[in-house]
What we know:
Elements: E1 6-9, E2 16-17, H1 19-32, H2 41-45, H3 52-59, H4 65-86, E3 89-90, H5 94-102, E4 106-111, H6 117-125, E5 133-136, H7 137-140, H8 144-155, E6 160-164, H9 167-176, E7 180-183, E8 195-197, H10 200-209
Parallel strand pairs: 1-4, 1-6, 4-5, 6-7, 7-8
Antiparallel strand pairs: 2-3
Helix pairs in contact: 1-4, 4-6, 5-10, 8-9
Amino acid sequence: MQKPDSIIFDMDGTLWDAVDTYTSSWNIVFKELGIDKAIQRDELAKMVGWEGKKVHETLMPDFDDEKRQAIYAKVNELRKELLPKNGGVLYDGVKDGLKDLAGKYKLYIVSNCAKGIIRLFIDWAGINEHIIDEIAYGTNYMPKHHNIKMLIERHNLQHPVYVGDTEGDAEQSRLAGIPFIFMSYGFGETNDHDLRFDSFTDFTQYFIKL
């Protein structure tokens, strides 16, 4: 793997864990709408990183797409209220690591989340000065590899890498034509990676020394 000039991060499972807040947002809306359904954390954690449409079909199989979209719009609006207050769990070493890495690399975020969620995360975590740009699935409803390539073209990145925590992240990195760095502490598993790290601190130390 060639020495990178930039690092593009996944968000959920790579930089933080906000599954408890995500779960609450679904369950509150279901209750408000009189839908007899309750989602468990473990159930939702398995879907972290999926494109929105697949999540909606899995969580709401009894509804048509129009109904799913209407429900999710309510979930997302509530999520925008909950995240600034409840946040999530920032993984050990992320805040200091991003600060150190930003002195050597250009840093970005591409995530399969709703529009506006990455920005809420950045503000909550206090990392705005370290992240140059971000693209969410909800911005254009395109797959992650498309958005990775769009970010690469937008900023003329020469040797980027993608950092994530799932098999899907690995697949999308390959489709985008860039190396994949696997963070094993997240929500998924994969053997398809160029490098693997068990903590964000180990990842930071490796790339600072590179």
